[in-house]
Amino acid sequence: VAGLVNHSVFRQVGVTAQKTMRLLPASGRKATQKVVVGDQDGVVTCFGIKKGEAVPVFKTLPGQKISRLELGGALNTPQEKIFVASGSEVRGFTKRGKQFLSFETNLTESIKAMHISGADLFLCASYIYNHYCDCKDQHYYLSGDKINDVLCLPVDKVNCITPVLACQDRILRVLQGSDLLYEVEVPGPPTVLALNNGNGGDSGEEIVYGTSDGKLGLIQITGSKPIPKWEIGNEKKRGGILCIDSFDILGDGVKELLVGRDDGVLEVYNFESADDPVLRYDHALSESIASIQGGCVGKDGYDEILASTYSGWLTGLTTEPVHREGGSGEELKLSQEMQSKISSLRTELEHLQMKVLQEREKYQQSSQSNTAISSVPTFSVNDKFTLNKDDASYSLILEVQTAIDNVLVQSDVPIDLLDVDKNSAVVSFSSCDSEPNSNFLLATYRCQANTTRLELKVRSIEGQYGTLQAYVTPRIQPKTCQVHQYQIKPLSLHQRTHSIDHDRPMNTLTLKGQFSFAEIHSWVVFSLPEVPEKTPAGDSITFYFQNTFLGTQLESTYRKGEGCFKSDNISTISILKDVLSKEATKRKINLNISYDINEESVRHTLKLIHPKLEYQQLLAKKVHLIDALRELQVHEGNVDFLLPEYRSILEEADQLLEEYKRQPAHLERLYGMITDLFIDKFKFKGTNVKTKVPLLLEILDGCDQDGLISFFEAA
C-alpha cells in the first residue's frame, strides 16, 4: 500500500450523486478498463485513459439528474451493460453508448437506490421498494423509514431472491417477496450496502454496510436470522461512509475493502487476521467521495483506486511508481512525455482564459444594454445536518460545487457554536437584537481560497426551538446566495434508539382527544428528530429515544385519539406537554392531558447529571488556575515546590485549555438543566419555585450531590 501515489485527476464531469461511477470489465487483450460516470446534469460519460489523457468513448445528452448507475448483464457473464436511474426512469446503454432500454416505472417519486441482478431490477424511492423482472412488476414493500440503499444476495449462490434494504432508522430490512423476513439492528443509519468480496463471500450471504456516522460492519444474512461478524467504530471521528468496494490492490490474492467518506477520506482495509479488517492506508481528498472503484485504468499492469468526488472530479491512486528504474534513455523519454503533457495543459489553460475574458465582456455588454436580463448563476449545495451522539452537538456540513466565499449563520433560538478542528475559515460574530423573536446568533465564516467544504458544530438547548439558517455565497460572478434552513426541534438532543431500560423510574404523560393518527404523528415529527415524516402503517406506533447529553430516555406510543409518553426526566415530559398542547391549540383540538409523576425519577436524573457537573466544575477550576501557575513558574524557575495536583495541571495545561475551548458554556448548560428540572418538578405540583433558584445555584457551586438531592426534596 506504501506504493499508492496520488497519480492524477483524469477529468471533471458535472456534480455526481452517491454510487454513480463504475469501471467496465476489461475486454479482450487490453487489460485497462473504461470508466463510466453519470452526473446531475443527466449526462452519462464513458472514457478510457491513454498516456495519462482521458479518451472519450461516448457521452449522452443532458437530462434529469442521475441518482444511481449500476452495471448488469446475464448472470455468470461479464457485467458490461450500463443502467442509469434518473427521476422515475431506468435507461440501459451498451458499453459503446447505444441505448437499448428506456423503462418508465410506476414510481411516483424519484428513484433513490437501485440494484441489478440478471433480469431482476430492484428500485427504491424514499419509502417504497419495487422488484421488477424483465421490467414486469413482481413485488412491493412499504418501509417504516427512508430507504438509503438496496442490495440483493447473489442468486447463483443462495438460490433465492433475498433483497436487503438499508433504512434510516438504523435497521437493515431483509425481504422475501413482498414481505418482511426479519430486521437487523445496526449501530448507525446505514447509507451504503455492498456484497463482501464483491460476491457475498463464500456463502454469498455476507453484506458490508457503512453508516452516516462513519461506522463499518459485516453481517451474514442467513435464511432465518442475521449473524454479525465484525464492526468497526469511528474512533477518529471521520465522516459518514458513502461508498464501498472490494478489490485486491495489494496483489496478495485477498481483496481489500475500499471505503469513501463524506469528509473526503479514502481508506483501504485489509484482512491480516482474517477476522477483523485493519486500516492499512488512508488518503484525504478535499471533497466528499461519492463513488469508489478498484481496477486497472491508467496503465496496463498497474492497479489503481479510482474515486469520483461530489463536484465531479475523477481521481486515481495508482500502484505505478513515479520514478521508474532504468537507464537515462527511459528517464529522457519520461521527461519528454511529461513536457508534452505540460505544454498541452498550458495551451488548454490559455484557451480557457481567453474564453473567460470573452464571456465576461459579453456579459458586461448585455448587462449595460436596455434589454438587459439579469441571470442568476445556479450552483449546487450538498448539505447534511446531523446529531452527534458522542458530544450531543449538531454537525452542519455544507459542500458547494465551486469555492465558497462566505457563509452567514443565523439562528432565532439560543445555540452555541463549537470549535471544529478541520475548519480553517475565519469566524466573526455580529451583535444581535435582544427583542423577542429576533436573532440569537449571527456569525460569518470567511473561507480561504479553494474551500469547497465547510463543517460547523452547534449545540442547542432542549425546550428552545426554531430555525437555523445558513446563507451560502460562493466565489462566482455575479454574486449570488442560497439560503438553507434547518429545524432545531423542541427535544433536539434526543436520538432514536432500538430499545430502552424499562426498569428506570418513569414519568408518564397521557393525551386524549379528537385527533387522527396522522395529526399526532405530525406533532411528534415537529417535537423530535429522526422521526419519519410519513405516517406509519398500522393503527399505532412506538418510538424509543435517548437524550445524547444526559443519557435519559423517552418512550412514545400513540394512535388515533390517544398518546402516551414516558421518560425518566421530568423536563422532557414538561417540554412535550407544552409543545403538544400548543400544536393541538393551533388546530383547535381539545386535549385531555393527564400525567403521573414519579418522585424517584428526580433523584435518578440528578445522579445521571452529577458526574458530568463535577467533571465540568473541576475542569473550569483547573483552567482558571493555569495563568496563575504559569506566572509562578516564570518567577520561580521551577515548580518542584508545588503540590503534585498543581504540577499535573501545568503539565496538562494545553489539553485542558483545548477541551475547555471545545465545549464553551458546558457548565452553564448543566446548571440550566438542573434549574429546569427543579422548576418542572414543582410546576407539575402547581407550585412556582422561581424565587428559590438563586439558593439552588449556591448549592450547585458547592457541588455536593447529597445536598442537592436534599434541597430538591425539601423545597
User: What topology, given as strand order, has the largest sheet?
Assistant: 38-40-41-42-39-43
Helix content: 10-25%
Strand content: 35-45%
Low-confidence stretches: 324-328
Computed over alpha carbons, the radius of gyration is: 29 Å
Q: Give a quick account of the main beta sheet: strands, pairing sense, barrel closure.
A: 6 strands, antiparallel
At the first level of CATH, what is the class of the largest domain?
A: Mainly Beta
Beta strand count: 43
The fold-level CATH name of the largest domain is Methylamine Dehydrogenase, Chain H
Number of helices: 10
CATH architecture of the largest domain: 7 Propeller
Q: Give the full name of the CATH homologous superfamily of the largest domain.
A: YVTN repeat-like/Quinoprotein amine dehydrogenase
Mean of pLDDT? 86
Structural class: alpha+beta
Kindly give the count of domains: 4
**Outline, from the CA principal axes?**
globular
Essential attributes:
715 residues, alpha+beta, Methylamine Dehydrogenase, Chain H, Immunoglobulin-like, Double Stranded RNA Binding Domain, 4 domains, six-stranded antiparallel sheet, 39% strand, globular
Task: Provide an overview of this structure.
- It comes from Pedionomus torquatus.
- Residues 335-362 form a coiled coil.
- Pfam families: BBS7_GAE, BBS7_hp, BBS7_pf, Beta-prop_BBS7.
- Keywords: Coiled coil.
- The chain folds into four domains: 6-318, Methylamine Dehydrogenase, Chain H (7 Propeller), CATH 2.130.10.10; 381-488, Immunoglobulin-like; 494-597, Double Stranded RNA Binding Domain (2-Layer Sandwich); 600-714, no CATH class.
- 23% of the residues lie in helices and 39% in strands.
- The chain is built from ten helices and 43 strands.
- Helix 5 packs across helix 7 (653-662).
- The termini are far apart.
- The model is unreliable at 324-328 (pLDDT under 50).
